[in-house]
Amino acid sequence: MNLHEYQGKELLKSYGVAIQEGIVATTVDEAVNAYEEIAERTGSKFAVIKAQIHAGGRGKGGGVKVVKSKDGAKETADAILGMMLKTPQTPGGMNGPGKLVRKILVAEDAYVPDFDSCEEFYVSILMDRQRKQNVIIYSTEGGMDIEEVAEKTPHLVHKEYIDPEQGLLPFQARKVAFNLGLSGKAFKQMSKFIASLYKAFVGSDASLFEINPCMKTGHDDIVAVDCKVTLDENALFRHKDLAELRDLDEEDPTEVEAKNVGLNYVNLDGNVGCMVNGAGLAMATMDIIKLSGGEPANFLDVGGTADAKRVEHAFRIILKDPNVEAILINIFGGIVRCDRVAQGVVDAYKNIGDIKVPIIVRLQGTNADLAKDIIDKSGLEVHSAIQLQDAADLVAKVLG
Length: 400
Description:
D-amino Acid Aminotransferase, Chain A, domain 1, alpha+beta, succinate-CoA ligase (GDP-forming) activity, ATP binding, magnesium ion binding, Succ-CoA_synthase_bsu_CS, SUCC_ACL_C
């Protein structure tokens, strides 16, 4: 689950991480009031207005602007609120439709008063699944795309691996500060920053923290100027307060609908809709579709109780994707009986009405023979298969 920048910063702050302070606004009037409050608090006329969407690269699309007056804040807030912001990370990239900006963050200008003495760093924490350890990735090249830095100047990207059982040790936090070239007060501040950041990462069951830039101010303080936070959804039962921060407006509406009816669904870019029970079987089904010349349009696990109602919900969700040219249903009847799934397919087909894409059904396991008989006698344009490869070959055939 992704958080907005302002939400992520509040989470970090609760663990003692120094942040660039700001006030969230949903209207132009709220933004102007926020600007005035920040100007009075800081004694500076400068502030930053940032669009709040679940995508990086907001500045490249015009979603981050520095303002230096009340009128400037009003004009900028009016321009950003309600815009369809396009960034390299929004759907379709800079050529896509973009994302609607519903909220903005009016923040202090962390570069005031001594811009020239400020330094930007990159800091992130995530899990290295291969090593089964958490890792802090950091660089002196903050404010840039870390992928570009890693490609062109890999020696500037450092990694510090952390044993999750031991946790972050003090010398490791100091090592990060040292490799970033810091000394004196800034060295101590960065060591403290890293320790608090790691504590927040573990304490919130996050899967990603990305601070870019992490900045050394003119006063040698270390603050998070921007942050990207992704939480592990499987751990949200331990964090009811964080679960309430979910912004459904920022998520794929089809995925939200699927979640509401108990389906595990992820939208992809292919042309073959998949309806499978079991995550492992779903992954294998996606692989064989690709090997047969198709492209999976989704990951969809209907779970172990694939009754008629659930199958119909799955059908309706898959058919909302205009790119779907065929649907492959692959069910292994261990817990669920294949004949019940087959009847669900037939009922769903009739209830939905005119389904114009070909459907391939492969049912194996309990009562598979009865299931095939139900499909074959239904009179519907449904192709049945016994082996998974046979089903994949049928997909390739109907796609031409």
